[in-house]
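Recall that a protein's primary structure is simply its ordered list of amino acids. Everything else, from secondary elements to tertiary packing, is in principle encoded there. The following example makes that idea concrete.
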Amino acid sequence: MSTRTIENPKPAMKIPPIVSQQEWEAARQQLLVKEKALTRSRDALAAERRRMPWMAVDKKYEFDGPKGKVSLLDLFECRRQLIVYRAFFEPGVFGWPEHACRGCSLGADQVAHLAHLNARDTTLAYASRAPQADIARLKARMGWEMPWYTITDTFDKDFGVHEWHGHNVFFRDGEQVFRTYFINNRGDEAMGTTWSYLDLTPFGRQETWEDSPQGYPQTPPYKWWNWHDNYNAEASPDPKWVKVSDAGEAAFRKRDAEAKAS
């Protein structure tokens, strides 16, 4: 084992020890135990989130959309779950009118392809107070694809996002809308992947390994995955992909069993 420093103008940067491959792998395995514990803890937290009480949303909210006035119910796009991120793009925000808030823009750059969320009965939407013409111009400039609406009433104040960003999660049962979860501050910085969004929703990832309340929709893991341009073409999982994913799962189980036995 040796130690060294990397020269930097000021001050010198002290780096971790330089070790052999065997020592490096041992250190990685030691840290992996904690990483797996963190993953299990995150899964348990998501399971608890799925059992959070819901709040009925009886007030009627109105937004401006690309095609005119829409309601909160319309934002679901006929799906059952909705995540609304309050992004700051409006007069008075740094960057206006060329850009949205730098932090909100960084978050928007992280958003995964929406087809995967949509395949799990979930819609992601952004909302700001900027007019639709400005939102359309911004989306075109930045290459963003998510639906983005204009807040026209007290939606932002009523849901805790009139002064700060945040994700509100809603569920639709017919015509009735419920608020199921809310996350902001540093919770927002982890958002962007399909999984981070689904873990906020009442249905979760909807996979059979999850600890969810009785009757919640669940399908086998991996099987529903698809190319983002192919969900509409395939009504059910491709048999060849099912075979491939089964083989992958079997390999993972064998590897884990061997690791426990060693």
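The chain has a mean pLDDT of 94. The chain has two domains: 55-198, 220-262.
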